[in-house]
C-alpha cells in the first residue's frame, strides 16, 4: 500500500492539552463492535469496567458494525473519557488500539483511489486548519510513510474503477485542482468555470452513467442516482429555505454574449443500437470528457468566463440571507460556547438578527473590498487552500453529481467568507490597517475551523444544501448567486 498526503497533513501532530478547541468535545463519537469488545476485554475486572459499560451505549439509531456504540459526553459536551489534563484516559491506560476509529484517525480523512491511500485533513481541528491555511506550500501532495495513515483499513473506497463515474474521477479531479490553481483569473471566476465545466459534463458523466459502457442500454437521467455525501454523526433540526431567485448561463463558455439563462433546458438520454457503434459511442464519450476538460483549461475560455461573470449583475441580499440562515440554524443545534460566542459576534457585526439581508450584504461588500486591498493575497490563500483541500477531503464521487459537489464547495466557502468578514478581529483591523497579519490569520483559523466543525458536515446543513441546490441547470443558476457573493 502506498499513501500520499498534502504537506500540511504530513506535518500534523496533535497538540492535545494545548489545543484551543479539542476534538474531544462537540462531536458525537461512534465506536465499532470490534473496538468496543477489545476495550471491554482490556477493562474487564479493572477500575474502568463499570465506567466503560455505563458510558458507552448502543447506537440509538440501531446501527451495528462500525457505528455499533456511541461514547458518552459530559454536561459540557466533552467526551466522558477526557481527563482533567485534557488527555484521553482510555488511550493513556489501555493504548491506541482500544480507541474508536474516529478518535484514532481524526483529523485525518482517509480515502482509497485504486490501491493508493490518500490522507487529507479535516479543518475541524484548529491545528490542521492552521497548517492548511497559513503555509504557502501546504497543499503540495507527496508520498507519506504508510504508518502515517494510522488505520488505512477505514479508508473510504473512492475510485475502484469498475464504473465510468469513478474510472474517470482522478482525471476530472486533477483538472479541478489545476483549474482552482489558475491565479491569472480571480478565485470566483475559477469557481464559476468549475461550475460550468460540471454543467457541461453533467449530461453524460454522472453516477451510473452508461455513456462510456460498450453496451446498448440507455443512460438514466442525471441526478437520479441518489448517492449522498457521508456526514459526521452530529444531528439536529432542519431549517427554512427562503432567499432564492436566480438566473443561469448559456452552454458555450467561449460565447461572448451576456450570460442569460434558460431554466427549462432538458437533459437528452444517450441511446444506440449496433454493438460496434456503442464502442465508438463509448470512445466518443471519453473523448468528449477530455475535450471539455481541455476547453475549461484554455486561457481564452477563462478570459471569456471572467468577462461574463464581471458583466453579471446579481443582488447580494440573497447570498447574505443564505449565509445568515445557515448559521442561525446551526446555532440552534450546537452547544459549543466557543462557536456560539463567535456566531453572536458575527451577527452583531452585521447589525443583529433583524438586519435586512440587503443591508447586511452592503456591510459585507464594503468589508470585502477593504480587506481585499489590505490583505487580498493572504485571504486568497485561505480560500484557495480551503477549496483545494475540499476537493481532496470530499471526493466528488460521493455526491449526486459533479455540479452538486461544486455547489457544496461554494456554499461552504460562502458561509466561511460571511463569518470571516463578520469576525470582530477582522472588523477591527479594517479600521486599524497596521494590525499584524497574525491577527488576521488567527481570525481566519477560527472562522474556517468553527464552520468545518459545526456546519460543514452536519446532516441538517447537508439536507439544506441539497434542497437549496435543486437539480441540473437550476443548481448552476443557484451556484452563480453564491459565486457572486464570494
Ligand atoms: S482538535 Fe486536533 S489538535 Fe485538538 S485535540 Fe483534536 S486532533 Fe488534537
The gist of it:
The chain is α/β, with parallel strands linked by helices and 486 residues long.
Number of domains: 4
Give the CA-based shape.
globular
Cα distance spanning the termini: 40 Å
Count of DSSP-assigned helices:
19
Poorly predicted sequence stretches spanning 5 or more consecutive residues: 218-273
**On the 0-100 scale, what is the average pLDDT?**
87
* Heteromolecules bound: iron/sulfur cluster
Portion in helices: 40-55%
Radius of gyration: 23 Å
Largest sheet, order of strands side by side? 7-1-6-5-8
Query: Which sequence of SSEs, written as H and E, runs from N to C?
Result: EHEHHEEHHEEHEEHHHHHHHHHHHHH
Q: Care to count the β-strands?
A: 8
Class of secondary structure makeup: alpha/beta
Task: Give a short account of the largest sheet.
Answer: 5 strands, mixed
What percent strand? 5-15%
Explain what this protein looks like in three dimensions.
With 486 residues, the chain is of the alpha/beta class. It has four domains: 1-23 and 111-144, no CATH class; 24-105, no CATH class; 164-311, no CATH class; 317-485, no CATH class. 51% of the residues lie in helices and 7% in strands. It is built from 19 helices and eight strands. The protein has helices spanning 7-11, 33-43, 49-55, 89-94, 101-105, 126-134, 164-167, 169-180, 187-201, 275-297, 299-311, 317-331, 337-349, 357-393, 402-422, 424-431, 437-456, 459-469, 473-485; strands at residues 2-6, 30-31, 56-58, 69-71, 108-113, 116-121, 141-144, 156-159. A five-stranded mixed beta sheet has the order 7-1-6-5-8. β5 (108-113) and β6 (116-121) form a beta hairpin. α15 (402-422) crosses α18. The longest helix is centred in the C-terminal third of the chain and has 37 residues, at 357-393. The two termini are 40 Å apart. Mean pLDDT is 87; it is low at 218-273. It binds iron/sulfur cluster. Iron/sulfur cluster is lined by residues 14-16, 19, 22-23, 106-107, 125, 127.
Amino acid at each position: 500500500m502506498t499513501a500520499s498526503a498534502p504537506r500540511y497533513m504530513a506535518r500534523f501532530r496533535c497538540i492535545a492539552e494545548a489545543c484551543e478547541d479539542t476534538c474531544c468535545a462537540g462531536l458525537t463519537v461512534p465506536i465499532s463492535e470490534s473496538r468496543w469488545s477489545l476495550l471491554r476485554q482490556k477493562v474487564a475486572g479493572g477500575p474502568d469496567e463499570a465506567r466503560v459499560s455505563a458510558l458507552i451505549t448502543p447506537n440509538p439509531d440501531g446501527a451495528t458494525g462500525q457505528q455499533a456504540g456511541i461514547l458518552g459526553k459530559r454536561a459540557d459536551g466533552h467526551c466522558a473519557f477526557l481527563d482533567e489534563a485534557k488527555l484521553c484516559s482510555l488511550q493513556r491506560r489501555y493504548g491506541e488500539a482500544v480507541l474508536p476509529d474516529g478518535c484514532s484517525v481524526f483529523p485525518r480523512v482517509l480515502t482509497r483511489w485504486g490501491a493508493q491511500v490518500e490522507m487529507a485533513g479535516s479543518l475541524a481541528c484548529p491545528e490542521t486548519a492552521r497548517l492548511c491555511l497559513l503555509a504557502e506550500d501546504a497543499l503540495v501532495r507527496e508520498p507519506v510513510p504508510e504508518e502515517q495513515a494510522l488505520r488505512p483499513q477505514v479508508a473510504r473506497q473512492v475510485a475502484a474503477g469498475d464504473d465510468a463515474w469513478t474510472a474517470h474521477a482522478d482525471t476530472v479531479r486533477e483538472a479541478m485542482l489545476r483549474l482552482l490553481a489558475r491565479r491569472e483569473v480571480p478565485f470566483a471566476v475559477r469557481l464559476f468555470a468549475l461550475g460550468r465545466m460540471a454543467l457541461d459534463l453533467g449530461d453524460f458523466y454522472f453516477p451510473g452513467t452508461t455513456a462510456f459502457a460498450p453496451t446498448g442500454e440507455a443512460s438514466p437521467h442525471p441526478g437520479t442516482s441518489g448517492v449522498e455525501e457521508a456526514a459526521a454523526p452530529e444531528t439536529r433540526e432542519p431549517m427554512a429555505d427562503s432567499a432564492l431567485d436566480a438566473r443561469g448561463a448559456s452552454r458555450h463558455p467561449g460565447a461572448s454574449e451576456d450570460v442569460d439563462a434558460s431554466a427549462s433546458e432538458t437533459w437528452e438520454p444517450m441511446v444506440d443500437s449496433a454493438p460496434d457503434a456503442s464502442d465508438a459511442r463509448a470512445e466518443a464519450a471519453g473523448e468528449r470528457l477530455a475535450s471539455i476538460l481541455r476547453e475549461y483549461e484554455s486561457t481564452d475560455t477563462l478570459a471569456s468566463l471572467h468577462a461574463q461573470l464581471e458583466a453579471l449583475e446579481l443582488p447580494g441580499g440573497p447570498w447574505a440571507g443564505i449565509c445568515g440562515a445557515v448559521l442561525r440554524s446551526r446555532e440552534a443545534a450546537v452547544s459549543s460556547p466557543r462557536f456560539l460566542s463567535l456566531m453572536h459576534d458575527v451577527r452583531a457585526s452585521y447589525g443583529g438578527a433583524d438586519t435586512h439581508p440587503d443591508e447586511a450584504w452592503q456591510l459585507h461588500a464594503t468589508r470585502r473590498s477593504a480587506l481585499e486591498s489590505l490583505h487580498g493575497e493572504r485571504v486568497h490563500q485561505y480560500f484557495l487552500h480551503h477549496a483545494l483541500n475540499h476537493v481532496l477531503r470530499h471526493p466528488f464521487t460521493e455526491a449526486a453529481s459533479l455540479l452538486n459537489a461544486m455547489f457544496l464547495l461554494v456554499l461552504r466557502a460562502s458561509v466561511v467568507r460571511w463569518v470571516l468578514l463578520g469576525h470582530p478581529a477582522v472588523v477591527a483591523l479594517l479600521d486599524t490597517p497596521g494590525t499584524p497579519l497574525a491577527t488576521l490569520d488567527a481570525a481566519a483559523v477560527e472562522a474556517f475551523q468553527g464552520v468545518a466543525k459545526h456546519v460543514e458536515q452536519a446532516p441538517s446543513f447537508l439536507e439544506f444544501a441539497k434542497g437549496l441546490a435543486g437539480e441540473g441547470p437550476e443548481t448552476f443558476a443557484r451556484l452563480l448567486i453564491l459565486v457572486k457573493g464570494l
